[in-house]
Design a protein that fits this description.
It is built from eight helices and nine strands. By secondary structure, it is α/β, with parallel strands linked by helices. It has one domain: NAD(P)-binding Rossmann-like Domain (Rossmann fold, 3-Layer(aba) Sandwich). A seven-stranded parallel β-sheet has the order 3-2-1-4-6-7-9, sandwiched between helices. A two-stranded parallel ribbon has the order 5-8. The protein is globular.
């Protein structure tokens, strides 16, 4: 177990960094990725590789570099992602395309480079980091929710298609954790005289507050470690506060309009 080689995309900060630090402390061999390696000259937590999940050549080069050092990849944690907020009507289309390029196409690009390696090994685990937000269309976060929902669903397809090769797929949906995700998030500007101005502004303030007061991201690392230790992981996992995890149950069992009212009340829409 302790010799497993783990690759974490988006490992230089936030949840990815927390996952990497925790897994290294458990004795795993950890590699993380970052788009710009020169920004982290003194990063010593674990080995960083340069990778842009939107660029196939960049992915290929990072995987080749890792295989030259370790000759295998036991676990892929697809964590790299970006945040995006805004009213659906006012969110620029080019920013929607960028969000899907990183949050959906990006993980698929990395999977399709790593999957042949795991298939040849006859084993491997691929964990796609999604979001509790991916289970519901949240006001002013619809695009982010959509990117994560798409990744949830496509993971199920990969899972069934690759099970016979000894490769296991699963997703982990985190709730709010105290990270720097807000710093790299694209948010549609609050437009003066917009019909959404007041409610969107309140939502942005609430999102930032939720992130700042979020849980310890080390909990995500602990959950990843547990998943890795399971012989046959479930299709989906979640990690976060009780109310965030309970919202998934409510979504499943409450009448649609009741759940919608609950979200509207929480979001002050």
């Amino acid at each position: 177990m302790k010799s497993k080689v783990i690759l974490i995309t988006g490992g230089s900060s936030g949840i990815g960094k927390a996952i990497g630090i925790h897994l290294k402390s458990k004795g795993y061999v950890v590699y993380g990725t970052t788009r710009n390696l020169s920004k982290y000259p003194s990063f010593t937590h674990f080995t960083l590789l340069e990778m842009d999940v939107r660029n196939s050549d960049s992915i290929k080069n990072a995987v080749i570099a890792l295989l030259k050092k370790e000759n295998k990849i036991d676990v892929l944690v697809n964590n790299a992602g970006i945040g995006i907020t805004g009213p659906m009507e006012e969110t620029p289309h080019e920013e929607i395309v960028k969000a899907f390029a990183t949050n959906f196409n990006g993980p698929l690009n990395v999977i399709n480079e790593v999957l042949p390696v795991m298939r040849n090994q006859g084993n491997g685990i691929i964990i796609n980091i999604t979001s509790i937000a991916g289970y519901m269309g949240l006001p002013f976060r619809g695009i982010y929710s959509a990117t994560k929902a798409a990744l949830e669903v496509v993971t199920e397809s990969y899972r069934m298609e690759t099970k016979k090769f000894g490769v296991h797929f699963t997703t982990l949906a985190p709730g709010d954790f105290a990270t720097n995700i807000a710093a790299g998030r694209f948010h549609t500007p609050v437009m003066k005289d917009s019909p959404y101005e007041q409610t969107y502004r309140k939502t942005l303030e609430a999102i930032d507050k939720d992130v700042d007061s979020g849980g310890d991201p080390n909990q995500v690392g602990e959950k990843i470690a547990k998943i890795i230790s399971i012989k046959n992981p479930k299709p989906h996992y979640a990690v976060g506060s009780f109310i965030q995890r309970f919202s998934l149950i409510l979504k499943r069992f409450l009448p649609g309009k009741w759940f919608e009212k609950m979200l509207e009340s929480h979001s002050e829409v």
